[in-house]
Amino acid sequence: FLSTQLIFEKEGVYLHTNAKRSNQDTTIPGFIRVVERVMSSVSPAGQWSFSLPLSELYSLRRARFSLGRNFLVLTSRGGHPLPPLHFHRGGTRELFRALQRYIILDQSPVDGRLFLAYPCDSGALSQSFDKLQLLDEGGSDLVMRFIHDPYATTFGGFSKVTNFFRAALRPPDSQVYSRTAQDPSLPPQSDEEPGFELITCLGPRPDVTRGQPLDKWEEFLDPEGRVKNPEKVKELVFKGGVTPPLRKEVWKFLLGFYPWNSTAKEREDILRVKTDEYFRMKVQWKSVSEEQEMRNSLLRGYRSLIERDVSRTDRHNTFFSGNDNPGLTLLHDVLMTYCMYNFDLGYVQGMSDLLSPILFVTQNEVESFWCLTGFMELLHQNFEESQEAMKHQLIQLSILLKALDPELYSQDSGSLCFCFRWLLIWFKREFSFEDILILWEVLWTRLPCDNFHLLIACSILQSQRGELIGSDHDFNTILKHINELTMKLDLQSVLRGAEAIYQQLIQCKELPIKVQQVLGLYIPSSSEEDSPDSQTSETQRLLAQSQAEAASCSSASGPTYP
Asked: Which residues form the Rab-GAP TBC domain (predicted)?
């Protein structure tokens, strides 16, 4: 039995399959429909047809080519973008109006082209917050802020999250939920848990000692100024950090501003070129008039966020304290210039936290900017709107913690979402300013593995094991305790624990592959290295995804697109 009602239909919608193959017909004409269905067993017909229930729509990005034609990119809640749909005859505004009868499309405050989708009945979530009276400004504001900017909400009000909010953060259409809803009697599959394998070969955790900070620099330089043994320098920094007088110089190597094999003369040339490049970018935003900025919503939005965050970043530090402080001006100018350097990413809350220690150490506008760009090469994915990198790191942390301490992980941990802030800005708000200088220079060595920051998180969690394990410790209690650890952790103890965990794991001869992958120990076979993603362009990758999804959704119901 099939009952349908046509809500919206538009012809002249084209699917572009491969923009790089100009000798082939890369545009497929079609149409887009929004259909209200009751009991559907009809699947889309044709190789390029696909359907997507509105409940599975995560976001919709609208853009325009120079010829004035609009195109849309829809992304499902699984994180998979569908092939771009090109509207040669217009109609995107009418489509939006039709969709808004069933879902809310809310414009991102940072990117005016991006619209986030969520159910019209999400008011129930806001209402529950209002009843709980968690925030003076109203629960709905917290919900909206988390939907629009999970980073800012994490900084500002995450300690007030309740079990209701935690449930809301877990998508109802996740694999575990859907499987249980279809047949609660079915046992959970092993792949529904992120890579947990019980390790039975773990030996005792070794004792680890920390070393003295790097306090000699000239002895590592050859007559022309090259660093003779970069790996030795990194080892010393990893074991003990760097003494304050040397940080200004050593950090520029750790963050890639200077190549390790550069001569003193080459570094002078690099500084001159980079200085010119920096001020050319700075002039770009400094020369924008107020009238121009009024017509540039992205730049205006970035400036507003930066001005707000600069006014409250590390104000306890004398370099940034007081009013009309030159340090605040430098902080503002470097962040605005970074927007010119990476306009696609722009500015996201948390980036001021990354810059302030670098600016404090270098006390130089140009050097701090290029060191920030090096730092952002490591962390830029943390700030991308898809949040895929953050989700991936939380999964990796789950793999490690479950392997190390299944009992600790079995607590009502809420998918470790209370570690979000830790990983986002590398524990910046958890340790003192001086401790962060040491921690970051240790992490910048990338020793003993790229994911050492995850081992630090494991070390912190296991150091609190006695407080976190207990029958009366629900998610709220755990979250409250974790937040109260701020500025109370002993950095040297945490670093010793993280290194000891690494040594304990690598000594296991039967370490599961997923744990090896997190630690960077697993070397894939040649067939795995020749994956489609490494061989094809982004367009081809999306094309392959659309074909797979078209095959997998043969029984799907919902609005039908070309």
From this structure: 241-447
Q: How far apart are CA 304 and CA 268, in angstroms?
A: 36
The rounded average pLDDT for each run of 10 residues, N- to C-terminus, in the chain (562 residues) is 69 66 60 66 53 81 64 76 78 84 76 75 39 36 46 45 37 38 38 45 90 96 96 98 98 98 97 98 95 90 93 93 90 97 91 97 97 96 87 93 85 71 94 97 98 97 85 71 91 98 93 94 64 42 42 36 32
- Of 411, 510, 511, 396, whose CA–CA distance to 458 is shortest? 396
Verify that 371 and 262 share a domain, yes or no.
Answer: yes
Distance CA 226, CA 261 (A): 5
The CB-side HSE value for 14 (13 A sphere, CA atoms) comes to: 16
What are the two backbone dihedrals, phi and then psi, of residue 416, each rounded to the nearest 5 degrees? 60, 25
The reply to whether 87 and 18 lie within a common domain is: yes
Residue 263 lies in a domain: yes
Residue 514: inside a domain: yes
CA separation for the pair 451, 448 (Å, rounded): 9
pLDDT value, residue 209: 96
8 Å CB contact between 20 and 539: yes
CATH number for the domain that contains residue 300:
1.10.8.270
- One domain, residues 402 and 476: yes
Contact 390, 423 (CB under 8 A): yes
Structure tokens at 534: 């490494």
344 in Cβ contact with 356 (< 8 Å): no
Based on the fold, state whether residues 504 and 411 are members of the same structural domain: yes
489: domain CATH number is 1.10.472
Is the whole-model pTM more than 0.70? no
Total domains in the chain come to 3
Q: Integer distance in angstroms from the first to the last C-alpha of the chain?
A: 23
In-domain check, residue 528: no
- Concatenating the DSSP letter of every residue in 259-275 gives -TT--HHHHHHHHHHHH
Note the Cα 530 to chain centre separation in Å.
26
Residue 351's pLDDT is 94
Enclosing domain of residue 504 = 388-519
User: What number of residues does the chain have?
Assistant: 562
Burial grade of 269 (CB within 10 A; 0-12, 13-18, 19 or more):
exposed
Say whether both 418 and 435 belong to one domain.
yes
Helices (runs of H) and strands (runs of E) counted in the chain: 26, 9
